[in-house]
Amino acid sequence: MTNESMVFNEEEVKCMVERALKDVFSTMLSMEISLKECITIVGGESARSPLSQCDGPLVIGNVGFVGAVSGMVYTAMTEPLARRIAMTMLGMSEEELVEEYDLVNDVIGELTNMSSGAFKNQLCDRGFQCRLSIPSIIRGKYLVVEASAAEFRQIYVFANGDDLLTFELLMKNDDTDDGHL
Amino acid sequence: MKSKILTVDDSRTVHILVKKAFKDCDVQILQANNGVEGLSVAAKESPNVILLDITMPVMDGVEMLTRLKGDPALKQIPVIMLTAEGGREAVMKIAKIGIRDYMVKPFKDDVLLEKVGRVVDLNKKIEDKTILDKVNLLLVEDKPAIIDSIKTGLSHLPWDFVTAGSAVEALNSYNDNKFDLVLMSLSLPQDSAFELIKQMQSVRKKTPIVGMVVKSDADRQHRAVQAGFDATITKPLDLSELEMRVCRAIGIDTSPRYFTFEKTHMLIKLPKEESMARIGELRSALNAKITESVDAGYSRIIIDGSGIEELDVNLIKLIIDITHAAHDMSLSCAILGNDVMKNERGSFEETQNWKIFDSVEEAVAS
């Protein structure tokens, strides 16, 4: 299985992802991000996050979508970037967020929700109805996703200054679900 | 009455963002984490508008919306969807159930305020003003001498006056500008003040309107109360009293006139002139300021009487009350005075033993 068996080509998906992430970051955070790299994962091979060489644990948001096209999104970033994003979005200081791990998780979960929504809404507008799942958060050092059923898999690496974040997208066609709410 | 906005979302982040967006509005924000809680809060609080997410645990937004519209007691509550679900078909399907508007995340505060503002009254919060802040006043008076007397008498304050000599002129000014208060003579020709206040209140209800009325004119004083004037003041005008009434009507904090927090102590400056209005003002803020000084870690108060012109019984009572209030909170107290105080303290039993210092440094060092 390769990315070519999907209904969209890689270039189209890359544009949709870039548009979605830039929209969310500029609207909610007034932050500019730029797409640095697209990593294609072929077949069912497992792939370690490009951020695994960073010091410290990662904060990873995860949302699924199901419908005519189904998939999973993982947004990963370092803990300091996650805190900076939380401070910016909520207008809170570093001191106010010191013990608030759950709140930082919630912010990244909501950011992942908005980013995935902004992406998958573009699929819906092209006739591929799908709906989002509830986001979840993982914290850890090494993220390895094994997904044998994915027909499309790419990791998009974005940068804001020296900080990196990744948007990993796995998708497959699914004719059995009409994707309606 | 404050508008109530209910936000139904499983994300604490969204609750914080919504609260932040409406921070300058005089509204009450209610929160629920899923559709079940949302229905319960809606039934209990009767919000004026609901901001509703779709993807939530326990009960999602579509089900909550369907149940809301099926409940005769709740179906009239306007709903604005606030969700990451934004495909055209999803929007149309939900719109058919009955919503007022649909917002797709991410969202900007001003868009949220604009959409909610179309549904409910979002009164801006009245900012707290102090006696040191600029105030814009509309003075409606057809007697030039009274206008001059007011402007001159209150010239020590950072207050800007726009004057109008007739009801028509006043209404035009009122429509074109925003004022903190309207000061209006009730002796305008043809009793036009009472029609004028009605017209002003239909434009902007929240601006306080104070009436000026001749002391002997009980009928107009009574009519002023009926017509909805926030306060009246009698002519001939006592300008200190006028100042106090205006401050009270606007909610101006006059305490900075008397209380300052220095490096080592709180300084309480006594009013120069013997005026019950001024003494009353100081007294009304005293306990709160003493508490504030204790909370801020101060251990000393200095009463500054260096500007007083006469030590009379009312000032003496005030000083005694200040020292007692300070003593109750274990604050030490010293009196800074002048020759008037030193010469006159012997005249009263309560003041004979007062130690009066010539300078702040001496008072602090004592």
Protein architecture, described:
- The complex is a heterodimer of chains A (181) and B (366).
- Chain A has helices at residues 10-29, 79-90, 101-125, and strands spanning 34-40, 47-48, 58-67, 69-78, 130-132, 136-140, 144-145, 152-160, 163-173.
- Chain A is α+β, with helices and mostly antiparallel strands.
- Chain A has a single domain (3-173), classed as CheC-like (Chemotaxis protein chec, 3-Layer(aba) Sandwich), CATH 3.40.1550.
- Chain B is an alpha/beta fold and 366 residues long.
- Chain B folds into 3 domains: 3-117, 3-Layer(aba) Sandwich (Rossmann fold); 135-250, 3-Layer(aba) Sandwich (Rossmann fold), CATH 3.40.50.2300; 255-365, STAS domain (Transcription Regulator spoIIAA, 2-Layer Sandwich).
- Chain B contains 14 helices and 15 strands.
- Chain B has helices at residues 12-21, 35-45, 61-69, 88-98, 109-117, 144-153, 167-176, 192-203, 218-227, 239-250, 276-295, 313-328, 339-344, 360-365, and strands spanning 3-8, 27-32, 49-52, 79-83, 101-104, 135-140, 159-164, 181-185, 209-214, 231-235, 259-261, 266-269, 300-304, 332-336, 356-357.
- Chains A and B meet through helix 1, helix 3 and strand 5 of A and helix 1 and helix 4 of B.
Reconstruct the topology from this structure.
The complex is a heterodimer of chains A (181) and B (366).
Chain A: H1 10-29, E1 34-40, E2 47-48, E3 58-67, E4 69-78, H2 79-90, H3 101-125, E5 130-132, E6 136-140, E7 144-145, E8 152-160, E9 163-173
Antiparallel strand pairs in A: 1-8, 2-7, 3-4, 3-5, 3-6, 4-9, 8-9
Chain B: E1 3-8, H1 12-21, E2 27-32, H2 35-45, E3 49-52, H3 61-69, E4 79-83, H4 88-98, E5 101-104, H5 109-117, E6 135-140, H6 144-153, E7 159-164, H7 167-176, E8 181-185, H8 192-203, E9 209-214, H9 218-227, E10 231-235, H10 239-250, E11 259-261, E12 266-269, H11 276-295, E13 300-304, H12 313-328, E14 332-336, H13 339-344, E15 356-357, H14 360-365
Parallel strand pairs in B: 1-2, 1-3, 3-4, 4-5, 6-7, 6-8, 8-9, 9-10, 12-13, 13-14, 14-15
Antiparallel strand pairs in B: 11-12
Helix pairs in contact in B: 1-5, 2-3, 7-8, 11-12
